[in-house]
Task: structure prediction
Amino acid sequence: MFRVAAGTEMTPELLAEYMTKHKTEISQRYQKLHDAYENKYQISSLEKKPDWKPDNRIPVNFAKYITDTMNGFFIGIPVKTTCDDETVSEYLEFLDQYNDQDDNNAELSKVCSIYGKGYEMYYVDDQGNIGITYLTPMDAFMIYDDSILEHPLFFIRHYKDADNVEWGSWSDGRVVQHFVNRGSYKWVGEPKIHGFEGVPAVEFVENEERMGIFESALPMIDAYNKAISEKANDVDYFADAYLKILGAALEEGELEQLRQRRIINFDGEDSSKLVVEFLQKPNGDTTQENLINRLEKLIFQISMVANISDENFGGSSGIALRYKLLAMSNLAKAKERKFTSGMNRRYKLIFSNPVSGMQKDAWVGIKYRFTQNYPANILEESQIAGNLAGITSQETQLKVLSIVDNVQQEIERIEEEQDSIGYSTDYPTNRTVDESEGTAGDIGGAVTEVQGKALNGAQTQSLIAIMSQFSAGSLTEGQAVNLISTAIGISKEEARSILNGEL
Result:
């Protein structure tokens, strides 16, 4: 993190100083992380072996696997951004659609996982709307003041054109100024007021230490790549072994290509003791496999990201699966807090610009919903939701179901369906059956227990409603039987007996 004294003014000299520091950081750290994600590891740059030796270079891209797996789990399901204020909610929806923010959030999250941090920059585009774009630490950096709160002072973005000339811009809390580097840094044009109350950029971080998710595991990934490459070399050695000839002399010309033909010859006087056989290299396969397996386990253990491709995952379900994903879930929760902080600063800046048309403090009412992307077992979820009937509220029941995105909307749909068909479901709603009307109360007294099975309140209520509707002629016998069977978990034969008063 770069820090200067509060009140420092940007000058070409100050810009040159921190651009140098930033480029050093890129070369010493960020480029290495960038290369790892793109499958460019240390194994590819090692000194070449002699031509006659196998020289396999096998980089295994754990960095990309770890990064993409974590971000699929963390933000594979897009963040839901809502607000009770309808005006704010409508503007948020427009802003997200206009800037393709679901994709921006996903890419920004990936950048944070690779480098430990990433940036969002805000601007007013040619259409008069607020634009949002993400940047990596390879392309931008922030300078903070030296206060305990670390207020952003300057945001610098830079790039090179086709002629390898460096261009860029810096922003403070009031203006944006473009620059060019042709031997020295110089301002281009006049500074322009950007309209935001603060530096128009936000730094998002993976964690407080700003470390990439696979950064601590890089030494082990390099060791793994070396081990598996040497194993491939050994396979080549075994496939092309040396021929040993003892007790026979070969012509000088036949020995010139010893290495190429892989023949070892030792002269002998007794031709009766001629030995011709292939040399066998000691088998170190077990040692190699143990090392490779140990390194693989350590890579996932240190990164705290689950190896989803592990065959043991296939048979896991329910609580067992959640235990296996617990470490990754903890990482996701910590990242969620950091991401929420960044998003708060995002909307605080955006709403401060008059172009947004929003009240400056309206961002306080914005809510974010992050949903971890667990493998869904709909059958198991529905069973749990059904067992909660009569114990918890309908809202709590529906929250168990991963297929329900918006609980309140789902409750409204249920109530609308109840109004249209005239009967209740297993789920208790605001529109409950009045047990005091007609025969409902009488039925209720008779059905609180079915063949020794005690019914909960919701099941009893549903049964009363179905039988009342059947008595009134609103349901056919077949419809009523199916509804009773589903509502209280009995066979259709038992349901028909109840309906006909046989039980």
Summary: Residues 423-446 have pLDDT under 50 and may be disordered. The two ends are 76 Å apart (CA to CA). Residues 326-352 form the longest helix (27 residues). The first strand starts at residue 2 and ends at 4.
